[in-house]
Structures are given as structure tokens and as C-alpha cells.
Amino acid sequence: MATSSRSSNRLPFWLGIAFIVVVLDQFTKTLILGYFQDGESRVVTGFFNIVRVHNSGAAFSFLADAAGWQRWFFVGVGVVASAVIVWMLANHSAQRLFSFAVTMILGGAVGNVIDRLLHGHVIDFLQFRFGVLEPMFRGGYFPSFNVADAAITLGALCLVLDEILRVRRGGK
């Protein structure tokens, strides 16, 4: 029982980190909305552009061409995922890597849900180009993404790492 008590004491810390991710995500998207028109792009380096893109779908524009129902579907998925993550944090917040991972996913999910509620789509603006990607992506341009997407990706990678480390420790 002491572990559960100690675990729940860390919940505000993890929720605070998720809140910082949401604030950073929304702040950067507000800057993009203020300084760029839809589709406008500025070259930063030979492999990186800042571009304003509206994504009505999910990762890699999945379901972007649907008739509009996907907005509410993705809002629902984000809300349910967020509730499950808060429950997991409340019960496992002493597990640092796991909690960091799901906190990043939580912050990213909430950031993108806010976009869908406010704009009907997600604002993406980070665009990378690598020649090695040309067989998979036209011109070698990786699909544009945002801070929320980066946090979700970091969280997913940390979940994989957490599982690998857990298995190596003997399944605890």
C-alpha cells in the first residue's frame, strides 16, 4: 500500500509535465497561425522547412480525405486515451520511464485534441527532407508534424524501451 500512496503523490508532477507539453505545443501552433498562411513554407536549412499544413486526419494524414466524421472520431480517441493514461499514471506513477512515456503521449494527445476542437484539424509545421526517404515520400519530404506529434513519438519510443528494460529485469 505504501507504493500506491507514494505513486499517487507523483501524479501532479507527471500531469504538470503533460501540461507543459500542451502549452509548448499550443504556443508554437499559435505562432505558426500568426505568421504563416495555409500552405506557406520557409526554408530553414537544406533539410528542414517550417510550413503551415492543416491535417484533418491522423498520423501520415490517415483518414484526411474522410467526410468530416474523423474529426469527432479522433477527438473521442484522444479523450478516451487521455483518461486511460491519467488512470495509468495514478496507479503507476512511481515507474519513472513508463510514466514519462505516457506523460508525453498524454500531452501530445491533448494538444492535438485542442486543435481538432478549435480548428477542425491539426496544425502541423515541422517538415524534414532527406534524400533517403524519396522511395517512401515524394521528394524525400517526411510528412509535416508538430510538437504534440513529436511528444507522442518520444512517448511511444520510451514505452518500447521501458518494456525492453522490464523484460531484461525479469518481467517485473
From TrEMBL:
GO CC term, one of those recorded: plasma membrane
Catalytic activities:
Release of signal peptides from bacterial membrane prolipoproteins. Hydrolyzes -Xaa-Yaa-Zaa-|-(S,diacylglyceryl)Cys-, in which Xaa is hydrophobic (preferably Leu), and Yaa (Ala or Ser) and Zaa (Gly or Ala) have small, neutral side chains
Q: How does it sit in the membrane?
A: Multi-pass membrane protein
Annotated membrane-spanning segments are 12-36, 72-90, 97-114, 141-161
Which InterPro entries does the protein's record reference?
A: Peptidase_A8
What this protein is reported to do is described as: This protein specifically catalyzes the removal of signal peptides from prolipoproteins.
> What protein am I looking at?
Lipoprotein signal peptidase
